[in-house]
Write a structure and sequence with these properties.
The complex is a heterodimer. Chain A has 6 helices and 8 strands, in the order αααβαββββββααβ. In chain A, the strands form 2 sheets. Chain A has a 5-stranded antiparallel sheet. A 3-stranded antiparallel sheet of chain A has the order 4-5-6, with helices on one face. Chain A has helices spanning 5-14, 18-42, 52-108, 131-143, 189-197, 202-208, and strands at residues 113-123, 148-151, 155-157, 163-166, 169-172, 175-177, 181-186, 212-223. Helices cover 50% and strands 19% of the residues of chain A. Chain A folds into 3 domains: 5-41; 50-108; 115-223, 2-Layer Sandwich (Alpha-Beta Plaits). Chain B is mainly α. Chain B has one domain (22-108). Chain B has helices at 2-17, 29-49, 54-78, 81-108. Classes of the chains: A alpha+beta, B mainly alpha. Chain A binds chain B through residues 3, 5, 8-9, 12-13, 16, 18-37, 39-41, 48-49, 51, 53-54, and chain B through 1-7, 9-11, 13-15, 18-19, 21, 26-27, 29-30, 32-33, 36-37, 39-40, 43, 47-48, 50, 52-54, 57-58, 61, 76, 79, 81-82, 106-107.
Chain lengths: 242, 110
């Protein structure tokens, strides 16, 4: 009866032979090499098992990628510099514009102002104070360097301001102001107060109209009265002729 | 019996010693392992066929490993090492599948 494979397996398990020892050695060698290879591969270094040509190819790929990245960096840096430049210019222009806005706001009376100045109180109990005397007085104050003027803390006097007689006071820019008139002026206090004193000036005009003048020099005077900015209907900005 | 013992010894030795593979051997080691596996499965098949001979096994084992390594070496010299090692792996894989199929027929009669 021929041996079946199962019989053979059983017999060889029971009776070790020289051939089996050789097989054992070679199988052991194979497993040893396999384990080493597995460990080597899983040890991580992805490039360690590669051939020279593969490495050269990988290196070329990396170099190309690096070149691409570098050119991208250059492009982006250029764009960033351009943007930063333009944003700096814009910021500078904005700062300049803001400064001009403040200055012009004080001149046009659209912004409140604060600074040293004088407070003039004209008490006109008899109601005889004339408009053109007030106007003269304001002109003299401007002459003395007044930078911002308000009357009775209500009306800001600017370049467009107009004055008119009214029944119980004076109409300034459409608003009636009544006695006593408080005129707040920002400017050099000494110069301003001197400007009121000279013969035929502000004070003389007031006493001619049977009123009294009180002048206070102040280190800090607030002018909170503002006026609406008006858009000119006829005058257009024009570029100055070169 | 002793073969299984040798397998265990090889496994433990590989894990314990953690040998450093020389650089020149690194590309050939995986190929050699697959070639040796082919020899082992061939031997197992021969054993079940009743024609196993330890001399043939040793020769085929060493020969397989050497030829596989030689093919890859020549491929490296010719600049087609990667492709040739793929080819060797494919051929050996097919042989392993054939041998395993024969073994399976012996064991399960199917």
């Amino acid at each position: 009866m021929p041996e079946t494979p199962a019989d053979r397996l059983r017999r060889s398990l029971r009776h070790p032979s020289r051939g089996q020892a050789v097989v054992a050695v070679l199988v052991g060698l194979l497993i040893f090499a396999a384990v080493t290879q597995v460990r080597l591969y899983s040890a991580g270094n992805a490039y360690s098992g590669l051939r020279q040509s593969d490495l050269v190819q990988a290196l070329n790929g990396l170099q190309a990628a690096s070149t691409r990245a570098n050119s991208e960096i250059r492009k982006l840096t250029k764009t960033r510099n351009q943007l930063r430049n333009s944003s700096e210019k814009r910021t500078a222009a904005l700062v300049q514009a803001n400064r001009e806005l403040k200055t012009l706001g004080i001149l046009a009376g659209t912004a409140p102002a604060v600074g040293p100045g004088i407070e003039i109180v004209v008490d006109d109990t008899k109601g005889e104070y004339q408009v053109n005397h007030l106007l003269d007085g304001i002109e003299e104050l401007r002459d003395a360097g007044a930078e911002a003027i308000s009357i009775n803390h209500r009306v800001r006097v600017v370049a467009q301001s107009w004055f008119e007689d009214a029944d119980n006071g004076i109409e300034v820019d459409g608003q009636i102001v009544t006695a006593p008139y408080t005129i707040d002026v920002i400017g050099d206090p000494d110069t301003l107060s001197k400007a009121l004193d000279f013969p035929g000036g502000f004070k003389d005009d007031v006493s001619l109209d049977h009123g009294t003048t009180a002048v206070k020099k102040l280190k800090k005077i607030n002018i909170d009265a503002v006026r609406e900015a008006t858009t000119p209907r006829f005058a257009q900005p024009s570029t100055p002729a070169e | 019996m002793i073969a299984i013992l040798g397998m265990i010894v090889g496994l433990v030795a590989g894990l314990v010693f953690q040998p450093d593979v020389p650089l020149w051997l690194e590309p050939y080691l995986p190929i050699a392992v697959v070639a040796a596996m082919d020899a082992v499965f061939g031997a197992l098949r021969a054993f079940f066929d009743g024609i196993f001979s330890d001399k043939v096994f040793v020769v085929s084992f060493v020969g397989n490993v050497l030829i596989a390594a030689l093919i890859v070496f020549i491929g490296d010299k010719l600049g087609v090492g990667a492709q040739l090692s793929t080819g060797v792996i494919v051929v050996l894989g097919i042989r392993i599948f054939t041998n395993v199929a024969a073994i399976r027929r012996h064991i399960f009669h199917a």
